[in-house]
Amino acid sequence: MKRFEGLEKLTGRTLFIDDLPLENCLWGATVRSPAARGTIRQVRVPNHLEGSGLVLVDHRDLPGPNVVSLITDDWPILAAETVRHRYEPVMLVAAESRAAARRAAAQIEVVVDPLPAALDFRQTPTAEQIQVGDDNVLKQLKIERGEVDEALAAAPIVVEGEYETGAQEHVYLEPQGMAAWLDGEVVVVHGSLQCPYYVESALTRALDLPAERVRVIQAATGGGFGGKEDFPSIVAIHAALLAIKAQRPIKLIYDRGEDMAATTKRHPAWIRHRTGLSEEGQILAHDIEVVLDGGAYVTLSPVVLSRGMIHAAGPYACDHVRIRGRAMMTNSVPFGAFRGFGAPQTLFAIERHMDVIAKQIGVDPVKLRRLNLLTDGQATATGQVIDDGTDRQQVLSRALDLSRFTYKRSQHTAFNAEHAYLRRGIGLACFFHGAGFTGSGERAMKSLLHVAGLADGRVEVLSASTEIGQGTTTIFTQIAADQLRLDPEQILIAQPDTWRVPDNGPTVASRTTMVVGRLIERACDNLRERVGLDAAATGTELQAALVAWHEEHPDEELLGSARYQQPPGIEWDDETYRGDAYSAYGWATYVAEVEVDLRTYTARVIDFVAVQEIGKVLNETLARGQIQGGVVQGIGWALLEECRWQEGGMANHQLTNYIIPTSDDVPSIRVAFLENPYPHGGQGAKGIGELPLDGPAPAIFNAVAAATGVDPRVLPLVPERLMELIEQ
Amino acid sequence: MIEVTFTLNGSPTTVQVDDTERLLDTLRDRLALPGTKEGCGEGECGSCTVYVDGLPANACLIPTFQVKGRGVETVESLDPARLAPLHESGATQCGACTPGVALTALWILDQPELLKTHSLRELMAGNLCRCTGYNGIIEGIRKGLTEQAAREGRD
After folding, report:
1. DSSP letter (8 states) at residue A618
2. What pLDDT was estimated at residue A52?
3. Residues with pLDDT less than 50, chain B
4. pLDDT of residue A92
5. Nearest to A624 among B42, B90, B98 (CB)
6. Cβ contact (<8 Å) for B34 and A220?
7. What is the least distance, in Å, from the CA of A323 to any CA of chain B?
8. Which distant-in-sequence residues (6+ apart) come within 8 Å of B90 by Cβ?
9. What is the DSSP string of A74-129?
10. Testing the interface with A: which of B40, B49, B51 to mutate, by most A Cβ within 10 A?
11. Looking at beta carbons, which residues of chain B come within 8 Å of A665?
């Protein structure tokens, strides 16, 4: 099936929140902190702005507590006495035009008495820099299995390594934006978001309103990648506060510069490995330390840390594993959800470390991975026994074949000898990504989904899962149509609206097709049962039964429903971090071929092969698009995208000098799928959204190492960094 | 305010604009054509691509007075039938960069001789896309070129 809304998007008819007319609206803008940390002494509003009809809102206008809580109650909606990061919101203004609002915001001065800021998450904070507990640690976790110290002491070889990754900005092409208005006693918020119920719960709390007086509707959303999971709650509350104060509709739309400066990003990370090995290269013990930069507030850092740590030992068997992790508070913008959620950082470290080990002990990097890859019956770092029938060696073999890995390697030796300034190399990464929420998350979420049988015989899926570009609408249509044997034209997908759709969880964690897709299948079965039909019923029979039911029950709603049920045999202990961390994993091997120019110190990816086993592929075009898009975002993270920090603020918060890949910076991404249907996923699918972010960076770094002989360990590998390595 | 007259999607148009107003804002706010998107506001992303006298240009970098007497075409003027190959190949995901991508893609289809001196990837490099990884876009244009060549061969 072709993308459901594809033609509408190609012809520019899809209307995003900034495109929608809003009668009689005012425009909002945000006044932000100029300092990384300090006490707000004064907010100076120039005299000519006072009494000019300008609407001003600060923390005193909040009816409820001044906090958006994702995990901990610490993220202020509008800073009150103190600020903890540059660009932290302090005051809101609304004016008759977008330009007037922005002009006014720029003239309002936040005067801050500075305090010592903690700006480097790798350094132990000094006493004056402590702002959280007695050590600025936001969260600490430990995974431990076996006897690590004994195994390390007994290991014939121990290889150590330190690795670092930088922040990454989402750069969804549509910046953050919300509209808010009052509909009688109800506050309505309409905008760009991934998780309508996250926004709803943030609004009810901040505005001190019951759920029935808050309505959240998703508008067409131009990309998310995690960036519209946490931050839209802030924008929504800001817009609603202005609408309440002004008693007029409000549009609050960020421009690119504001979006890049003020919103969450991928967590920077520092990771240390100590690995005990046999002479042949079998991994005997892992001692891993993971430190994340959490930024100014907790937001989602504990779960990012947890996912990162669970993936930190890679897709390899090892009986003695210790992974210690902490997320540090610093005075920079809060780091938040970003596609991959901690796993790209830790998988970069282990997969680069595997090549470091291979070189150090003189084993071929492919052989080293073959020797250690998990086979069914073996356990992951959390003690989860993998038994899914996937042949992980086959995933690796397919990637080697498609990329002609061995042949290319021998060709490169000749190429590099012939060329004065060009160096080619090839590198690989083997990895995995857990789909759905971590541990008991799905069970706690208790997702509920409805499908409505309509009076005209059509069927409407009522779900809070959002279309943000990944193809939710198309996949849901496909699943419902297949399950009910109906033509796709007979299926409607409701626009997520908290007054119309139940809460089936956020659109995150690669869970939509796998977890919510399965709920659609079950809700469709339930609908069929409700009209007295069994699974053998044809679409025509079903539609006739829906029409007949409505004739007998005029003005009543006919719903088929399903609530999440955990697949059997899943055990997880949140206290000890032991057990089945995810109900399913995608498995992958990616291969990158690079060319390094020794004159410009640039590394270019000239070929890329992405092979993955993701359960059943439901829509080849959409699935390939997810992988290719994720790979290119990963190439950007590895080679181009660097957040430059100045006093805790992003200095290059514009697309002129924060460089994301263009079509000319990347090769065609060659994708292959191995399919091993997952019985508990929608039509046998496993999640794929995040997987492709994990593999590109380590494969590229390994290829650069092979090409040049240098040992890159810090990401991104921009020309300045590569120059230092080559010239050393 | 100044008065600017130009041809918009084939029709003569006169509009009063601020002296420093961007073509992007004139199109979106005064002429109710929201298909042209603002992605960065500094000419990097190409989401605001329009044709000026038939050539793709960033509407965020053009003061409206500069299009006086010229022809401007926006995504709203495109023939949906010509976009079918891009639809099939997965050239759009979230849709925010897509109008600009569609305009540049059809411009390439109209000027296939450009491919004698430039690669497709080079010609598309002015339109940033964060979703597709560009494969779907490049394949869609290739498909369009092939279909077009086959049609021309038949005619």
Report:
1. S
2. 80
3. none
4. 98
5. B90
6. no
7. 33
8. A3, A621, A622, A624, A625, B132, B135, B136, B139, B140
9. -B-SS--SEE-STT-EEEEEEESSHHHHHHHHHH-EEEEEE------TTSPPPGGG
10. B40
11. 125
Distances (CA, A) of A583 to A384, A437, A572, A682, A687: 10, 9, 10, 13, 11
Query: Does residue B88 share a domain with residue B56?
Result: no
Beta bridge partners of A426: A593
Closest among A612, A450, A423, A441 to A519, alpha carbons compared: A450
Section A348-358 average pLDDT? 98
Same-domain pairing of B91 and B147:
yes
Looking at the complex, report in whole angstroms how far the Cα of residue B143 sits from the nearest Cα belonging to chain A.
15
**Do residue A19 and residue B34 have CB atoms under 8 angstroms apart?**
yes
Please, which residues have CB within 8 angstroms of residue A454's CB and are 6 or more apart in sequence? A460, A492, A546, A550, A558
Give pLDDT, residue B155: 67
Nearest to B92 among A10, A655, A669 (CB): A10
- Domain of B64, CATH number, reads 3.10.20.30
Identify the DSSP state of A514: I
What ipTM was estimated for this complex? 0.98
Q: Which residues pair with B152 in a beta bridge?
A: none
Chain A within 8 Å of B17 (Cβ-Cβ)? no
Same fold, A22-115+176-253 and A447-563: yes
State the nearest Cα–Cα gap between B149 and chain A, in angstroms. Answer: 22
* B40: its two tokens: 């960065």
Scanning A279-338 for CB atoms below 8 A from B yields none
**Closest by CA position to A636, among listed A71, A169, A119, A184:** A169
CATH number for region A447-563: 3.30.365.10
Across the interface, whether the CB atoms of B42 and A256 are under 8 A apart is answered yes
Any A CB within 8 A of B118 CB: no
Compute the distance between CA of residue B56 and CA of residue B73 in angstroms, rounded to an integer.
Answer: 9
Q: What is the mean pLDDT of chain A?
A: 97
Distance CA A709, CA A726 (A): 9
pLDDT band, residue A50 (cuts 50/70/90): confident
Residue A569 has pLDDT above 90, yes or no: no
For residue range A169-178, what is the model confidence (pLDDT) as tens digits?
999 999 999 9
Per-residue tokens: A713 = 């360990």
Mean pLDDT across A371-376: 98
For A170-223, write each residue's pLDDT tens digit.
Answer: 999 999 999 999 999 999 999 999 999 999 999 999 999 999 999 999 999 999
Asked if B5 reaches chain A (Cβ–Cβ under 8 Å), the answer is no
- The dihedral region occupied by A413, where left means phi > 0, alpha psi between -120 and 50, and beta the remainder, is alpha
Locate A86 and state its tokens. Answer: 């540059």
Copy the structure tokens of residue A133. Answer: 């507990």
Residues 471-510 of A with CB under 8 A from B: 471
B-facing residues of A in 413-452 (CB < 8 A) are none
Judge whether residue A119 has pLDDT over 90. yes
Q: Do B96 and A471 touch (CB under 8 A)?
A: no
Domain boundary assignment for chain A: 22-115+176-253, 269-438+576-727, 447-563
Provide the percentage of residues in chain A whose pLDDT is more than 90. Answer: 97
Q: What is the pLDDT of residue A152?
A: 98
What does each C-alpha distance from A103 to A107, A246, A430, B29 come to in angstroms?
Answer: 6, 18, 51, 18
Same-domain pairing of B44 and B100: no
Q: Which of residues 40-79 of B touch A (CB under 8 A)?
A: 40-42, 44-45, 47, 74-76, 78
